[in-house]
Amino acid sequence: VLICLLFFLSDCLSTQKPEPKKPSPFVLGDYSYPIQRAIWIAEKIFEESKLQGLAFAVTNENETLLVKTIGKASAKQKLDLNKKFYLGSVSKVFTALLILKLVEEGKIFLDKPITLYLKNLKLIPRNKKDPPPTIRQILYHHSGLPSDEFSSFVNDKNVVLSKTNFYHTLLDKEIYMADTPGKVMSYSNLGYSLLGILIEKISNKTIEEYAKEKLFIPLKMHDTSYYYKENEQDFSKGFYGSKEIEPMYIRDLPAGSIHSNIKDMQNFVKFLANKGKFQGKTIFQTKTIQEMFQIQKASSYDFDFKIALPFWIAHNVYDNMHLYGHGGDVPPFHAYIGVNPNQNQGIVLLTNTFSSASLLENLGKEILSKFFEAKTGNKPFVKVANFKKPFSKNWQNWAGNYLTSSGWLNLEAKQNYLKTNQNVVFIPESENEFLYKVRFFFELIPMNIDAIQNYRVKFNKDKQNKKFFALTILDKFILLYGQEKEKKQVPKIWKDRVGKYKILNATNKSFLKDFEISYNSSDELIYLSYKIDLIKTIPFTICVDIFSENLGYTEGLGRNSGLALVWEKTFEGEVLHFSGYKLRKN
Fold it and tell me: Are strands 407-413 and 77-78 parallel, antiparallel or unpaired?
């Protein structure tokens, strides 16, 4: 009893521990300090963020330097190394590896169009001359494919337990391309589902069978699977706050369904950090893993964003650490893996609690930075752009009318900034990069707000010399695009479609609701509004780029933009096809 009491007290007082002091003199290769600090910062974030369960591991070369679990797996059970978590989009790293294994075996080629191998795939190009996307473009999210197909994205538990590869239904329908392949970064779950179909067709195995053969068994990942399983006691429960909730069961297995535990995942990051080797055996050729870490060709719309296959490059956080990362979210679960292939170091973090999607990523970078310093003697640094106040007024040339996914943004050049028709101003740092500032006190004074300190607005021109901008965070996330356009009259047939709509093919797991089309006469725009009801209800209002009488696309560039609205005439009236749903006006 006394031992249990002491354990309980030490656990409760963990957040009161002072931050470990860095040893002096510093000893290269001594990991005792980064281990102590990793535990300290993880417990601190765990408490502050009100997480219920957290597991993480840090690897170096062929050894695990630290593996730790904090909190609980359920209301009655403590978290341990065997408890499984849903990895969400970290699954894409596995799917990408299986594609690269097929390339390694000479069965497919990265720069060939996916339609060469999936001949039944029906892609409707946004522009007539657009080619189909290549496998490489799909891998690094420049395919031009829609981000998602909303209908049946979340499935009933009984359906997914059948182990039916229901994402194959994507071959039974026409897929309207959101944009030109190669043009812009646009994260696509749908694209990775198509890669899963490709894997199964070429390997003549299910994706689970092929993953077991090429990854799970060689890496001794015996508790890892693409398939959902029922009544497994080894699964952690999911939490929203302190309440236990069911996870989402999604259709797109190759994009986000893998579950695993921290014991298996430490093997996975070792394998990646050691460029395809695990416990002295070559699982993947070194050149294959090097291809995975190769920064891909950027477009003008990417600005400073960098991506590999499919890792995102954290150059904007620690320039000399060269961290490749990927996160995953299947609410309420979150996951993050980070790999430094130059130093053969890696980290993986898993939580069972609904929280900020960037929480684990930021924690992982902070932890791994100390291990990087202990190994190399170099402290990670952040390059800060050395902007000078512009002497010329060329930045004023970016004034104009820009159409964003949420409507018009009008920019007017003032003496020292660009004024917008919203409650923000753009303050120049260079001729094409601006600080984003909110205006208060009768819109006279730009104010600093912590949440937007890392926001930047960047301008460029496309091949047709049209201006566009992106609102970015730390060069990593692009929140919003705006494109210079002129107002056009909305056709009468589109105005007649204004109203509320009901879903004709809804299921008990349909998460799209309150679908409505409206018309704004002052903006001369058609707006589409709906709500997505998952763990939280999220409202969306997006303007529509009208292509013809019976075809439009949601305005904007990037994720969830370019979704097609296709009108079909039937005996019972018009039917709207939108992201797999069929809708009719009330």
Answer: unpaired
